[in-house]
């Protein structure tokens, strides 16, 4: 899970664009994918010049300032999340081999690298890093000088046939100074098409400042880009076609826009993310028209089980969705972590609908689970935020969330957009299968349409939550309780705090409290409680209010998230955070927001890098 960028330009068409600047800009935008080290290599005056540095792109920029690189029209760059080898300077990419004649950057894992290294060592090669990438680069160089007779694309084909695992590799060579050759297998790579210039990126944000025209590539393909265009072949050398598309993301959407962090900005983007995800998906009567779901309606009608697969925050969105889908469609619905699903021999057949949730569309665990489900005969619908990414490409259909680029490692707007999209899917299935009357669907849609404004209200009241985060900055542990749809919200609140504030946090189902977790409560323990609507079903509200009393009696500091007008909570709460009234199933879209603001506030207060928390990367593209 690294970020990769490539650029080649024609100076007479694009005299303003220097490879180093273009590549560095791409790396800054892709840094969310990994930030253990960064590096660039450019070609100029018959030579490859490289700089690389452990740490973030800023450290690389400082290194380049200290030791400048020449002007150039051809360059590659890399920002790394370490897998093989520590995040040191020497393990950073690019790896320059063949006496400085070839430079390579790589994302992914080459599983058979030990065997290949031994083979190359036997031929007399030595290695200076601990990385699998240096092995791949050396194999490429060996093949280029040997059997491929100086043909870089051919050498890449032959090398890829020897590599096992998942990888994207970009290579430049002094013997082919007008081109970058890149290979892709189970790891992302997108081509950007400019005028007199071409780009490569792990995703479109790698070149979004320069062009809106892009091309998807399939697995097992190799592309050669020159300033004039691109040419794709398979690993066997057969000509292949890419799929051209126009990038809908706005370059400005991938900027901080005056906020302190991308996370803060993305929290503020949430009303728009929900609005845009709803847009164009129903008519004025509330009839859903999900044209992109081109799966035979008779198949969707015969579905007898739904399995939602995802990881992390996306899995919590799936847990929220389960309550709605089962309620609306009366189809048994399971939610499973993709990596658990994949390896437990799940019962899946052609009547199973698998819904794969992923912001990035590149999470390897989810991708593998999608493949597994399809092999068993299931239909797979992806719900994804990143156009052209692997999961939608491999699914039978995709319902895109329109949250715009999510840069911060901690997912916020994608979560709310995923819930929105799964709700649309649930309503669509209910419409198709006749589980709900048209006016019932219409009224749910009308409630969904009110949510962006309500989310805005919650954001507008953030000062109270920000004050709480300052007050609680020294807490050693924070607990979160919720019931029904409030339970996944509690899990999500805890995850946010763990990942960006490095603070111990746990989410529990409130009903589970007396079965164990209540033993954790002692004087001063902060506990967030998500209170269901008092107008909601059964006696859920009363039960959660009892839970608040139980923990308060044992010394907890209770921070209660409750609807406006819910007075019953006042006497038992140390703090009440108000959210607008809404039906129970809509509540996660509101109750999550203060928890995001709280985590962002605590991390900021502690002085941590909110957007790039330690040890993490935005998309986990290795298993
Ligand atoms: O791109 P995906 O939605 O597939 O990513 C899944 C998880 O890795 C992701 O949600 C992760 O848990 C976030 N860092 C949470 O904030």
TrEMBL record:
Main enzyme class: transferase
Record Pfam families: GATase_6, SIS
GO molecular function annotation: carbohydrate derivative binding; glutamine-fructose-6-phosphate transaminase (isomerizing) activity
SIS domain ranges (all copies): 295-435, 468-613
Active-site residues annotated for this sequence: 2 (nucleophile), 618 (for fru-6p isomerization activity)
Catalysed reactions, as listed in the record: D-fructose 6-phosphate + L-glutamine = D-glucosamine 6-phosphate + L-glutamate
A GO CC term assigned to this protein in UniProt: cytosol
Subunit description: Homodimer.
Record HAMAP family: GlmS
The protein, known as: Glutamine--fructose-6-phosphate aminotransferase [isomerizing]
Species of the source: Corynebacterium pseudopelargi
Record gene name: glmS1
């Amino acid at each position: 899970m690294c970020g990769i960028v490539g650029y080649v330009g024609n100076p007479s068409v694009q005299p303003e664009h220097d490879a180093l600047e273009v590549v560095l800009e791409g790396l800054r935008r892709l840094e969310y994918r990994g930030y253990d080290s960064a590096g660039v290599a450019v070609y100029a005056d018959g030579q490859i010049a490289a700089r690389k540095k452990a740490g973030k792109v800023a450290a690389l920029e400082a290194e380049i300032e200290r030791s400048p690189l020449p002007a150039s029209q051809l360059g590659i760059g890399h920002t790394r999340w370490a897998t093989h080898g520590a995040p040191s300077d020497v393990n950073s990419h690019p790896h320059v081999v063949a006496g400085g004649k070839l430079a390579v950057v790589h994302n992914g894992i080459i599983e058979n690298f030990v065997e290949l290294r031994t083979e190359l060592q036997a031929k007399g090669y030595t290695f200076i890093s601990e990385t699998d990438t240096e092995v791949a680069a050396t194999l490429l160089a060996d093949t280029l000088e040997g059997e491929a007779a100086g043909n870089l694309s051919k050498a890449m084909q032959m090398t890829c046939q020897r590599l096992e695992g998942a990888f994207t590799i970009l290579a430049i060579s002094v013997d082919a100074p007008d081109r970058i050759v890149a290979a892709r297998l189970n790891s992302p790579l997108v081509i950007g098409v400019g005028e007199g210039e071409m780009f490569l990126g792990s995703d479109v944000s790698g070149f979004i400042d320069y062009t809106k025209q892009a091309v998807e590539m399939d697995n097992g393909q190799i592309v050669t880009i020159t300033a004039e265009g691109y040419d794709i072949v398979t690993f066997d050398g057969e000509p292949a076609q890419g799929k051209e598309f126009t990038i809908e993301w706005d370059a400005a959407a991938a900027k901080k826009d005056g906020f302190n962090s991308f996370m803060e900005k993305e929290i503020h983007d949430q009303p728009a993310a929900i609005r845009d995800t709803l847009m164009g998906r129903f008519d004025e009567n509330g009839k859903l028209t999900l044209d992109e779901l081109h799966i035979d309606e008779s198949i969707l009608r015969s579905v007898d089980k739904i399995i939602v697969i995802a990881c992390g925050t996306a899995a919590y969105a799936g847990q929220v969705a389960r309550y709605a889908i089962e309620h609306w469609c009366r189809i048994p619905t399971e939610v499973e972590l993709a990596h658990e699903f994949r390896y437990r021999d799940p019962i899946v057949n052609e009547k199973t609908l698998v819904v794969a949730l992923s912001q990035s569309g590149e999470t390897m665990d989810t991708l593998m689970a999608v493949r597994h489900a399809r092999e068993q005969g299931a239909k797979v619908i992806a719900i994804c935020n990143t156009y052209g990414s692997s999961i939608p490409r491999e699914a039978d259909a995709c319902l895109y969330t329109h949250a715009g680029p999510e840069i911060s490692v901690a997912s916020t707007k994608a979560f709310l957009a995923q819930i929105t999209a799964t709700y649309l899917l649930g309503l669509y299935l209910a419409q198709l299968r006749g589980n709900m009357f048209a006016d019932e669907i219409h009224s749910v849609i009308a409630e969904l349409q009110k949510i962006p404004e309500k989310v805005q209200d919650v954001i507008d009241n953030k000062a109270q939550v920000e004050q709480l985060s300052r007050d609680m900055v020294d807490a050693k542990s924070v607990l979160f309780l919720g019931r029904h749809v409030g339970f996944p919200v509690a899990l999500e609140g805890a995850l946010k705090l763990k990942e960006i504030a490095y603070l111990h946090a746990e989410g529990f189902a409130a009903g589970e409290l007396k079965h164990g977790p209540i033993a954790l409560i002692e004087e001063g323990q902060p506990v967030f409680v998500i209170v269901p609507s008092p107008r909601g079903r059964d006696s859920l509200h009363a039960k959660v209010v009892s839970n608040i009393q139980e923990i308060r009696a044992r010394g907890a500091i209770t921070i209660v998230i409750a609807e406006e007008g819910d007075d019953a909570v006042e006497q038992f709460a140390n703090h009440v955070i108000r959210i607008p009234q809404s039906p129970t199933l809509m509540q996660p879209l509101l109750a999550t927001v203060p928890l995001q603001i709280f985590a962002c506030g605590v991390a900021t207060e502690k002085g941590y890098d909110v957007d790039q928390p330690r040890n993490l990367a935005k998309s986990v593209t290795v298993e």
